[in-house]
Write a structure and sequence with these properties.
3 helices; twelve-stranded parallel β-sheet; 31 strands; mainly beta; Polygalacturonase; Pectate Lyase C-like; 433 residues
Length: 433
């Protein structure tokens, strides 16, 4: 109850901030800076941003209905007052990834406090050509000759008190949204769409951020609907529809040194439909460092024909690109799965494969009611003794196994190319596998 109240307070505060700012703001229509439909508005937006950011009172940039082109864009704070960007038109990225000059994102908001991104508009990444190129690159990469450099649609780096509401992100070349080093950012009423075969088009990925709320949002992509990288803290995903895609994931974690702990994740009142995985925690074996992952709670979730609805996989090794000589050193604790119901696309509805080096603690299955072809789904567990209450499948022993049917153990023809993880650079690179 207190958690739900705190989320409502945060969202109400951000909306109050946005509405207060709007009521007292200078309105900067993009047309006043030379922006017009069916033309490139990169320079016009940059000019509008510079004026808005320098204003000592709140300012709003408005992009009216219509279709616009936009090239590589990076806007920075700090600004002198809150800024809102209201997008009611469709903004199109260059379809050719090379036109973004090798940047890791199309649009970047950096070091801004009290930013609102609103409207009924669409950010269209026009990713089809990039997806095709990525598939070719990953085939070549198996022979050591490939490259897969694609742009994220929208990147928030080191932003504080941010509200993203109403907008749509469509057909990103890579992730749709990336959140790195941010505090108190809310996505409310957002739509994220891409074909289910589009590789690595995660809906919202985050890392090293505190206080991320995703609510009342619809996500259907070719990869994770929501994914948490290292250093994610106090994250809430509530009233979200996920599918198609690969589910809602914590990780992967542990592949690189100097990763940070992950703590405080609540997924509640969500529906997943025909996703490749359900709710998942994944860590690499033979990890170079030690971190903890704690207070992970998945509650009141409906699964509709979902492959691998509940997964903890501490032997995560897509395409066998790692060593399993030593177990994962990532410690998992206080992980609960409560009131999860629906249909599984695999016989094993629950798979909990913990590390033999640091077994999981405090894992609970409470009213996990999943069926496969009309019969109760089964559970497979290793290196864990979960507390089972209410109706839930009984864990069967498993010496060592990845989830059956998991998309991450699929053949290259079936699965998206793995992401290249990297530690955050000064620019704020994402870390996702």
């Amino acid at each position: 109850m207190m958690k739900k109240l705190s989320i409502a307070i945060i969202i109400s505060f951000l909306y109050f901030l946005a509405n207060f700012s709007a009521a007292h703001s200078a309105v900067l229509d993009i047309s006043k800076f030379g922006g017009s439909p069916n033309a490139d508005i990169t320079k016009a937006f940059t000019s509008a941003w510079n004026e808005a950011c320098a204003s000592i009172s709140a300012a709003k940039i408005v992009i009216p209905s219509g279709t616009y082109k936009m090239g590589l864009l990076e806007v920075k704070g700090p600004c002198k007052a809150p800024v809102e960007v209201q997008v009611d038109g469709t903004i199109q990225a260059p379809p050719n990834n090379a036109d973004l000059k090798g940047a890791e994102q199309w649009i970047r908001f950096d070091s801004i406090e009290s930013l609102t991104l609103s409207g009924k508009g669409v950010f269209d990444g026009q990713g089809a050509a990039a997806w095709k190129g990525a598939s070719i690159a990953w085939k070549d990469k198996s022979h050591g000759t490939g490259s897969d450099k694609r742009a994220i649609n929208i990147y928030f780096a080191a932003c504080t008190n941010t509200l993203v509401t109403g907008i749509t992100s469509k057909d990103s070349k890579y992730f749709h949204f990336n959140v790195l080093g941010c505090n108190n950012i809310t996505f409310d009423g957002v739509t994220i769409i891409a074909p289910d075969e589009s590789p690595n088009t995660d809906g919202i990925h985050m890392g090293r951020s505190n206080g991320v709320t995703i609510t009342n949002t619809n996500i259907g992509t070719g990869d994770d609907c929501v994914s948490l990288g290292d250093g994610s803290k106090k994250v809430t995903v509530q009233n979200v529809n996920c599918g198609p895609g690969h589910g809602i994931s914590v990780g992967s974690l542990g592949k690189y040194p100097n990763e940070e702990n992950v703590e405080g994740f609540l997924v509640k009142n969500c529906t997943l439909t025909k996703t490749e995985n359900g709710v998942r925690i994944k860590t690499w074996p033979d990890t170079p460092g030690k971190i903890t992952v704690t207070d992970m709670h998945f509650e009141d979730i409906t699964m509709n024909n979902v492959m691998n609805p509940v997964i903890v996989d501490q032997e995560y090794c897509p395409w066998n690109q790692c060593s399993k000589k030593n177990p994962s050193q990532i410690k998992l604790s206080k992980v609960t799965f409560k009131n999860i119901k629906g249909t599984s696309g695999t016989a094993e509805g629950v798979t909990i494969i913990c590390s033999s080096g640091v077994p999981c603690d405090g894992v609970e299955l409470n009213n996990v009611d999943l069926t496969f072809n009309g019969a109760p789904a089964t559970a497979k567990c290793s290196h864990v003794n979960p507390l089972v209450t209410g109706k839930a499948p009984v864990c069967g022993a498993s010496a060592s196994a990845s989830p059956s049917g998991s998309s991450d153990s699929a053949s290259p023809a079936q699965e998206s190319a793995p992401k290249e993880e990297k530690l955050p650079s000064k620019k704020g690179a994402s870390s996702k596998e």
